[in-house]
Design brief:
about 90 residues; alpha+beta; four-stranded mixed beta sheet; 2 helices; 4 strands; about 20% helix; about 30% strand
Length: about 90
């Protein structure tokens, strides 16, 4: 194998700012920021969404209207379709 072609793999701290959660994960991501966590300095990356805040993983998904699109269409525009032409 050629030397110096692989990215440096190390432990990185990812911070989900929306719920203030920290994750230590092995990664090759490049960052200039550092954070001290548990007395050790780690590279630091902020996130907007992670498994701690994403609605799919937290179970707080929005429920869609169950009556269906055809019923919603009839409710909105049915009066125009049912009006007598004259």
């Amino acid at each position: 194998m050629k030397p110096d072609i692989h990215p440096h793999y190390r432990t990185v701290v990812f911070h989900d700012t929306s719920v203030d959660e920290y994750f230590k994960v092995g990664s090759t991501i490049k960052t200039d920021r550092e954070i001290e966590l548990e007395g050790v300095k780690y590279p630091y990356v902020t996130l907007d969404v992670s498994s701690a805040s994403h609605p799919y993983y937290t179970g707080k998904q929005k429920t869609l209207n169950t009556e269906g699109s055809a019923a919603r269409f009839q409710q909105r525009y049915g009066r125009f379709l049912n009006a007598k032409k004259g």
